[in-house]
Design goal:
This protein has 190 residues and is an alpha+beta fold. The chain contains 3 helices and 8 strands. It is elongated, with a radius of gyration of 29 Å.
Length: 190
């Protein structure tokens, strides 16, 4: 087939340049960068979606574990109440309770950075306190450091200092705040 002399095919116009040359090194670098960015994106989304369904506190070793489906997600070193040995029996005893509880509320405006409330006292704790003729106490939280003292950081763990709460650093309570939803189980062991 031949074209009449007066008709020429129109040149093709592309909205982008196709003159870029690809070398093996440039393609490898681009692939590596894409892979790195994709893995960071995926890892950050996977970590953001992992939620703890249980918190286990080991008073003797001063550790707290965040668990999901029986797997340890994270372990923290903690400070406890000023008299940590034994279960909490009354208000003002500076002991951290022992037993199984739940996270039943949270306080973003806490005087201790952020705080997650532990469902102490339970009915059995109230009954024991009633039999002793005392108040069982309450307001037991997992919390950060007192507002304005965040720079103390991990040094707060050099001694047990709370009134019965479980203390971590401000950075740690921020992480715990994101990973633990209300309703999560809290097991506190001696």
């Amino acid at each position: 087939m031949s074209f009449p002399e007066s008709v020429e095919p129109e040149p093709q116009v592309f909205p982008f340049s196709i003159s870029h040359s690809f070398s093996a090194a440039s393609l490898t670098n681009k692939t590596a960068i894409f892979g790195l960015l994709a893995s960071i994106f995926i890892a950050s989304h996977l970590n953001a979606e992992v939620k703890a369904d249980r918190i286990i506190v080991h008073k003797k070793s001063r550790t707290m574990e965040l668990m999901s489906g029986g797997r340890v997600l994270k372990t923290y070193k903690i400070a406890l109440g000023g008299e940590p040995v034994g279960p909490k029996t009354r208000q003002g005893d500076h002991r951290t309770p022992e037993g199984i509880f739940v996270i039943d509320r949270r306080n973003a405006q806490s005087q201790f950075h952020r705080s997650l409330h532990i469902s102490y006292p339970r009915p059995e704790d109230r009954e024991r306190a009633r039999q002793l003729g005392v108040s069982p106490g309450g307001d037991i939280f997992i919390h950060g450091l007192p507002n304005g003292y965040g720079l103390v950081g991990a040094a707060h763990r050099l001694r047990d200092w709370t009134d019965g709460c479980i203390a971590v650093t401000d950075r740690e309570i921020e992480e715990i705040w994101r990973m633990v939803d209300d309703g999560a189980t809290v097991e506190i062991h001696p």
